[in-house]
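Batch job 17 of 40 flagged for manual review because the log was empty.
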Amino acid sequence: MTARPSANRAEPPRIGAGFVRRIYLLRLFGFAIGFFPLLVLLQEQHASLWTLAPVAVACFVWPHLAFLSVRHAPQPLARERWNFIVDSILGGWFVTAVHFAPAATVVVFLMFAIDNMAAGGWRLFGCGLIAMALGVGAGTLVFGAHVVSVMSTEAAVAWVPVILGYPLVLAKTTYDVYMKLSERSSRLRELSERDSLTRLSNRMTIAAKLQAEMARASGIDVLFIDLDAFKTVNDALGHNIGDQLLVEVATRLRACAGRDDLVARYGGDEFVIVSETQGGSDGHHRLADAVLAALGSPIVVGEHELVVGASIGISVFPDDGADAESLIRAADMAMYTAKSRGRNCYEFYRRRMRNEADARLRLSGRLRKALESGGLHLNYQPQVDMRTGEVRGFEALARWHDARYGFVSPVDFVAVAEASGLVSQLGEWVLRAACEQFSVWRELQVKPVPISVNVSPLQLQRADIVKTFQRIIDETGMNPALLELEVTETALMKNPQASARRLAEFRRIGMRVAVDDFGMGYSSLDQLRTLPVDRIKIDRAFVRGIGSGDSGAIATAVVTLANAFELAVIAEGVETHAQRAFLLELGCHDAQGFLFSKPLDADATTRLLLQGATLPVPPNAELSGSRARVMV
């Protein structure tokens, strides 16, 4: 059963639909004004009613029929060319009807020849001549080949209105069409060069205008501006509010720029300002400071007071590039550096940025190949009961040793994976590799120990992440109760409601959830209470200073909070006996860190499990002494 087409579905635009009405009016005028001198000639030649009637019908009926045939045609202009052919046939037929009277023959020939040339050029002109010859042939069969070479003064005078009037009307119609086409061409050119929302120059023209400016000016600043909080506004308040915000931003940028400066919308929430350098080194900063000040003040859109801020990258001609594309790309790189510095600031382009960008691009390609060829491996850091040394779990950590770059830091390749769209593929590989390694341990019949796997904030945003993880668990035969997902507190706080729903889905399939780097995301107590989590990890930043001047107040607060919410707690980065003693005194029994073990490869982890999954603990005397020192 096929669906019926919607009655409200818009029809495709018919190119030339407006022009065919003008052609219809011109044809109606031409045939009507030409009928009267034809009538005078026919009466002078004593033509019969059977001759007069067809000529009248052709002059007054055919223009309407021609218009009806093209009015609803999908391509009216193409169909109209056939009507011009019919016009020419009728013209030849008219000439034979008046027996080739000299004035009539010349005027009729010129009228239809000019029409054909104006409408279709030489091609239609040639086709029109052939069609007129066919009309003459048909008329000769009907009216005979008799030639009347003499016509009266009255008949000749009757053609004067045609000779004077029709060319004027044709010229006026041609002029109107020309002006309309010029207006439309100008409008299309404006649309191609300007952003339809903000009326600024668009991305298509910024490079050409910048290149022209470079040929004239000795120094140019290019500011690449990216709004910091626009996506949040768009997601929370809708695209209509977002569009109004962009219009106001464009207005403020115009106010900041000079009269001769170029302001353009590069795309989305990105803008570019091109300004001739003025005032030496201070001139580079003055415009950027003005833009930050303008966008840092509240913008009222409807009932909302919005503050977006901006990150700005600046490149300078001729130092940073010899062509427009290089300058814009350099400013773009500097803008991303400004974002990494904390946003709402500006950064000048430096040559090392291009080298770093090229290096990231090469590293991204190597990482993609490593994921496809199995060039990565997992290490496992034990999570230990600090009282007994019993291994309570492992955190799976991706490691990469590249043939060209050697050992690549996880900080570097995870950042590259997030920037290049490989983070989901990397996260799925880590989960699958951990589950497959667990299967090996299960065959060895060692004690089952839970494995923790980190989930990237970008990976957590994917709608299919739960289904993907479920599929990997099913394919590897992993017990989901022995899997723990570690999600950073910062990632959870970006969208607490959505994060809570996603984590609840993980727990429904049997997995445990831990909040990693706890204390770094500034979550509220209410938010923490509503999140479906099982354990929180004290960030190493709050453990590092314990025993060396840090009172451990934040670590104490985290453990107290975990106990109040009946959550398990584990500390990471434990490296000294003093840290261990302090945490045990607080009631935090689980930890991971170099005090117990560095991350182990798969073989070393297997040996640890086969040997009973227990690590040595410091002597009790040292523990007691450390504990006493902490309590003093």
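Reviewer: the log was empty due to a logging misconfiguration, but the result itself is present. Residues 81 and 120 are 8 Å apart (CA to CA). Unflagging and moving on to job 18.
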